Design the sequence.
């Protein structure tokens, strides 16, 4: 089953509408969607390495624009939509500490958390809820999301075939590691912040 799912994602990565779909996922992941765009970014670059940096650019731009939606949710609608998103992921206690940290470490929180498995939507919503400076939020988001997506794309562009062979040979292991990192990001945020 895992192999057929992988093959389907690889085929989808070559679809003519793959880039707009990736853009939509990147946008939504920054505000409400739980699955990071890496799920499509990695197979898309592996399937079409000559478009690696274009794919990373789409991820970056759409993620930052989606981050503005997350910021707006936190700034204007935290009591309704923002709390719902936070409660959906069970992160209420972590968000309080996270919001408090913005007063002293706001820029560093955005720069560091945007690179980690900690869900970026929580960074964007918390930034808005803390009324963090919008200009600083945007440029920090561009830097952190750009670094994240362009580094992944560059590594896949440079070492694509060995990475693809490793993934295909150890698909179950790679899938479990990805899921552990994804769930781990939520757990770290919930219990350490």
Sequence:
């Amino acid at each position: 089953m895992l192999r057929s799912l992988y093959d389907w994602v690889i085929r989808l990565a070559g679809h003519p509408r793959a880039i707009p779909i990736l853009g939509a996922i990147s946008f939504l992941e920054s505000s409400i969607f739980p699955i990071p765009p890496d799920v499509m970014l990695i197979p898309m670059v592996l399937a079409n390495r000559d478009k690696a940096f274009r794919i990373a650019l789409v991820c970056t731009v759409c993620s930052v624009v989606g981050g503005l939606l997350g910021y707006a949710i936190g700034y204007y609608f935290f009591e309704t939509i923002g709390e719902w998103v936070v409660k959906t992921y069970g992160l209420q206690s972590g968000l309080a500490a996270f919001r408090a940290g913005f007063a002293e470490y706001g820029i560093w929180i955005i720069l560091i958390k945007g690179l980690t498995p900690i869900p970026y939507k929580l960074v964007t919503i918390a930034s808005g809820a803390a009324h963090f400076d919008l200009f600083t939020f945007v440029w920090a988001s561009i830097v952190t999301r750009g670094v994240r997506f362009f580094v992944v794309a560059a590594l896949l562009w440079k070492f694509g075939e060995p990475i693809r062979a490793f993934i295909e040979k150890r698909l179950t292991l790679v899938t479990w590691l990805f899921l552990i990192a994804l769930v781990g990001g939520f757990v770290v945020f919930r219990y350490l912040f």
Q: What stands out?
A: The chain has one domain: 2-192. DSSP finds nine helices and no strands in the chain. Residues 134-169 form the longest helix (36 residues).
